[in-house]
Specification:
heterodimer, A: alpha/beta, Rossmann fold, B: about 600 residues, alpha/beta
Chain lengths: ~300, ~600
Amino acid sequence: MIKQKTMSKLDVIESQSIYILREAYREFKNLAMLWSIGKDSTVLLWLARKAFFGHVPLPLVHIDTHYKIPEMIEYRDKLARKWKLNMVYGQNTKALESKQTFPDGAIDRIACCKSLKSEALKHTLAGDWPRYRMNHQTGKYDLDTNTEPYTGVIVGVRADEEGSRSKERYFSPRDRNNDWDVGDQPPELWNQFKTDFAPGTHLRIHPLLDWTELNIWEYIERENIPITKLYFDQGEGKRYRSLGCYPCTTPVESPAKNVQDIVEELRGGKFANIAERSGRAQDKDDGGGLETLRLDGYM
Amino acid sequence: MNNTTREQMNVVIVGHVDHGKSTLIGRLLADTKSLPDGKLEAVKANCKRNAKPFEYAFLLDALKDEQSQGITIDTARCFFKSDKRDYIIIDAPGHIEFLKNMITGAARAEAAVLVIDAKEGIRENSKRHGYMMSFLGIKNVTVCVNKMDLVDYSEKVYEDIKVEYTEFLKEINLKPKNFIPISSREGDNMVTLSDKMPWYKELSVLEALDHFSKAAPDYARDLRFPIQDIYKFTAEKDDRRIMAGRIESGTVCEGDEVIFLPSKKTSRITTIEGFNLAKQTEAFAGQSTGMTLDTQIYIRPGEIMCKANEKQPHVSSKFKGNVFWMSKEPLVKGKNYKLKLATQQVPVVLSDILSVLDASELSSIKNKPQVDRHDVAECILETLKPIAFDEVNNISETGRFVIVDNYEIVGGGIVLAPVFDQETSLNQHIKEREFHWERSDITPGKRAVKYQHKSAFVVVTGQADTGKKDIAKMLEEELFKLGKFTYFLGIANESLASTSNSNDKTLKRVQHVRQLGEMAHTFTDAGLILITSISDIDDYDIETLKSLNRPNKTIVVNVGENRFSEGYIDLTLPKTDFDAEVLKNTVTQIIQLLMKSIVLDPEYSI
């Protein structure tokens, strides 16, 4: 007797993401995964545990802007300890010390993003700015002695988030300056991706490209993935739909108290036709804000 | 209906530039109410303000502008729903310059809508794109003859195009599901049938899409499980050794007898592994999974696991295939490229071009010396190591490949058939070498008498840190003390191939083995006992070394765990652990073997 063998939509995208993660793990010696603590990259982290049978055999890199909502850092370190993650963070110390930030300094949102995120990311990946690694004996972060550049960087962007992300490939090359050539991207045929790269260049790997915001929440629900409580209404009728730095992220009006509520809200409720990043101010500052940032190495 | 169980289909829209692809998509989005609230009205009002006629194609442009502000519809992929299923529409560029992007989009599609302008008729890219659909194996194809309003909804114009294009598609083995006369600008036959063309009584575009059938992975097919990687994570005392990958076809159960190709190693499935999953005893096509085996066999990522009792893929280093070329640098004979097929990666050379097809004219060009950008060529490709593959019509997932040059994917291809009868380039090379080699008048026999031993090539192999090099060097010293003519060739694994200025690891390894074999042949021909140590080689590499060193003797000594198949190793010895006593004992055993292998036979005479 042949049993029914069907894969749901979530099974299909899960399988594809795992395939991509395993391709990356095999091909890149210096591979890292960016973990922004948000729902997408936490799903990505979960998918890594799926791909590697409960293990996470690669460093998770967090770019700490110091403007992250404090609960995010708490949640990061709790999960890092619990899952014994190889947790690394980097930051733009200079800009933070000299207060070249928004809104304290005389710079706008885009410039602040560029400095605290893009610049910090670039140098943390390259290894020429200090990296701090969690010491699981003490639970504290030590200066990381490994300063080798990461040549493969796994990022949780989704095609449905906004225009420039929809043009991405699963394996997307970046040159020495982290620049992205949107006009001349490598072909991806069937399941063959660009896994070869010239010295000095690196690749961004995007396993979540085919996922929608709704898929992410459906999967969090199905797999029971621990997620930061900032996404849920704590009783004030407000919650974060997208997480960033507090000066530039505003919560949305929503009574969703748990994952099921959010799934309902996205399926047919009030957010079914409103873009996810509408609470992220840097996207709006100059029309093509995010594309400008992304050309320069922003995730 | 539960969102997670709804079916989703990727549809690519193709056709010549300006034949109305964007208008068709704009109309579909508008008529299925898939646009954000107020969008249609806003674009119409904008057109009115600027005194230009409204076009549905503007909807896509307008969406582009809006994207940077965070609306969730994109140019490359639009989302819309019918009652039956969710669609992702892939907008493929019609211009030849963007063929690479078109292929990337289309390779993800399960269905295609090919648009032809009724007034302009069939153009170059109508044919080229049609051919690419056939090449990519897209079975669900609908041809829309667009802009019927410009030809007065003439049945004759439609029929003429239909006949001509059907004829063309027949030549390339593509049978479209249907032809539909439409005007996407006027909305005729898009969602419902139009009264402007009463002579057409078949399906509207939307109905045609809903009539496409999703190709369910065929679980009844033979198992193909390309090994993506082999994991042994030791954290938390995990002792599983897991073969990881995605099942491309068939099913597999615990207890199944399996064979790995091309190595032909066999084992049996012990468990199906997963994380945060209920215990499973079976896995099937489409799943990214992992398995443990009941024997400790050594294979590398790239091998294809099959069931022992099912039909297996071909194993060969030559095959006939169709290649679609995307690079400005032409595909030429004699140059080393990298082939990626399923999870196998292996150096490849173009060994012959049978014909080059001009896809827009369907004329085939014989005797073309190279394959240029945008050409499709039927060729013979030769990999420098045997690989496992299927014919694309049998199992497409293991019958498709890409070619990489200078870090970039530059070609895509499909396997038509294996080639077995022709000589491999290695054998051909050896034959030529023998032919051109001016032999010395001092025969091997004369040398053996003079030196008191025959020549031999001693290969000491095994995993890293097993003390191979110490053994090889001590062996040289002991033989030298015995008065034998010997030489230890100590050269790091990849430095021999450094002249190739290639960064391709797979190519470097193959070249290293070949050059080592070549050097060995010279030394053994001179009557010496050449000793070398090498790690990370497989059965096929040993075969290559032996072939190149023929007719002289090659002796392979394995140190530590033996990962080779039966018949490849002459002597297996334990790891030395860098202990002087063990080392001495090991070398003595090798010398004893050499004695027996007549190399050092004191009784030897001509």
